[in-house]
Amino acid sequence: MSKTKIVDFDDHLNQEYGERGTESRDAFEEGFEAFRLGVMLQELRKNQGMTQEQLAQKCGTTKTYISRIENNASDIRLSTLMRIIREGLGGQLKLNVEV
Length: 99
Fold this sequence. Notes:
Layout: H1 9-17, H2 23-47, H3 52-59, H4 63-70, H5 78-88
């Protein structure tokens, strides 16, 4: 019976993508945050019982754009994100910066 070595998640990220501050790790973390944003918007939309089309109409964009954001295929401007959250979802965007 072999023993599997359990690796801390931070150690795993360091092994796979390099230490924080390296180009490969920064690229991974940026991509992950974009993915997370898309999932968050999708969950908020679904929790309100809206389709992508309905959300797009409420905030003045297209279903295709909402889909691209939710599927991490589009960069999004801060002003557009704020409009989607405010006008489309009735929420308020609050940002947090970690240094």
